[in-house]
From TrEMBL:
Keyword Transferase found: yes
Family: Belongs to the methyltransferase superfamily. ETFBKMT family.
Keywords: Methyltransferase, Transferase
Record's keyword annotation contains Methyltransferase: yes
Protein name per UniProt: ETFB lysine methyltransferase
Pfam families: PrmA
Organism lineage string: Eukaryota, Metazoa, Ecdysozoa, Arthropoda, Hexapoda
InterPro entries reported for this sequence: Ribosomal_L11_MeTrfase_PrmA (IPR050078), SAM-dependent_MTases_sf (IPR029063)
Length: 233
C-alpha cells in the first residue's frame, strides 16, 4: 500500500512539475495580445514581436503550436458570441479543437456553460492560462469527441478545422448528424475552398461576416474576411 501510494504521489508531482514547466515556456515565448477582432479578450499568442515568429522549426519548443495563433475562424466565432449573448448565454457549449480557448472564453464571458475541448496537452495548458488571464472559468476536456453523437452539449463551436479535404468531409458529416439530433452547430472559417463549396450546396445559414484586421490578413495567406455559418442537416 505504501509503495503504490508513493508512486501515485510521485506521478502527481511529476505531472504538476510538467504543467508548471509548460506554463513557463508558454509565458516566456508568447505575448499577451488584444490585437484581433475581440479586443475584449487577452490571449497568449505568438506575434511578430516574439522570437519564435521567425525561428527555425527545430528551435520551437512546441510541436504544432496551433494554440499560439488566433485563427480567423475562431476570431469570427468569438466576435459573434460576444455580440449575440442573448442567443447563446443559456446554451451548454462545447468548443471543439479549442486551441487558445478564445471561443470558450468568449462564451464564458456571456454567461454560458462552456467546455473547451482539445486533444493537444499543451493547448490545454494554454487554455488554462488564457482563462485565468480573462478571469473566467471553463471546463477543459481532452477527449476526442469527433464522431461521437451522444453529446451533453446543445451548441457546438468549430473554428478553422477545415484545412484538410478528407478530414473536412468527415467533420461536416459528423456535424450534420449533431444538427439532426437538435444541436446548434456554428462554424467559423475564412473561406477555405472545400468548406465553401459544401456550404453553398446546402441550406446552411451565413449568420455573420467580419473584415479581418491587417495583421490577421498577412498571417493567413491573404484572407480578407471571416465568416460564421449555422449548419443545417
Amino acid at each position: 500500500f505504501f509503495f503504490s501510494r508513493s508512486v501515485k504521489i510521485l506521478n502527481t508531482s511529476f505531472r504538476q512539475c510538467s504543467r508548471l514547466t509548460t506554463e513557463r515556456v508558454i509565458i516566456e515565448n508568447t505575448q499577451v495580445s488584444r490585437d484581433h477582432l475581440t479586443p475584449e479578450l487577452s490571449l497568449h499568442l505568438i506575434t511578430p514581436s516574439c522570437k519564435l515568429w521567425s525561428a527555425n522549426p527545430i528551435d520551437v519548443p512546441f510541436a504544432d503550436p496551433f494554440w499560439a495563433f488566433y485563427w480567423p475562424g475562431g476570431q469570427a466565432l468569438s466576435r459573434y458570441i460576444l455580440d449575440n449573448s442573448s442567443l447563446l448565454s443559456s446554451r451548454k457549449i462545447i468548443d471543439i479543437g479549442s486551441g487558445s480557448g478564445a471561443c470558450a472564453i468568449a462564451a464564458a464571458k456571456i454567461g454560458a456553460q462552456v467546455t473547451a475541448n482539445d486533444i493537444d496537452p499543451v493547448s490545454r495548458v494554454a487554455i488554462a492560462l488564457n482563462t485565468a488571464l480573462n478571469e473566467v472559468t471553463v471546463d477543459i476536456s481532452s477527449e476526442n469527441l469527433i464522431g461521437k453523437t451522444q453529446l451533453k452539449w446543445d451548441c457546438v463551436l468549430i473554428g478553422d478545422m477545415f484545412y484538410d479535404e478528407v478530414f473536412a468531409r468527415t467533420l461536416l458529416s459528423w456535424l450534420r448528424i449533431l444538427v439532426q439530433g437538435g444541436a446548434l452547430v456554428l462554424v467559423g472559417d475564412p473561406g477555405r475552398t472545400l468548406l465553401q463549396q459544401e456550404l453553398h450546396k446546402s441550406s446552411d445559414i451565413l449568420v455573420a461576416q467580419y473584415a479581418l484586421l491587417d495583421n490577421t490578413c498577412l498571417e493567413n495567406n491573404g484572407f480578407t474576411d471571416t465568416f460564421v455559418w449555422q449548419l443545417s442537416s
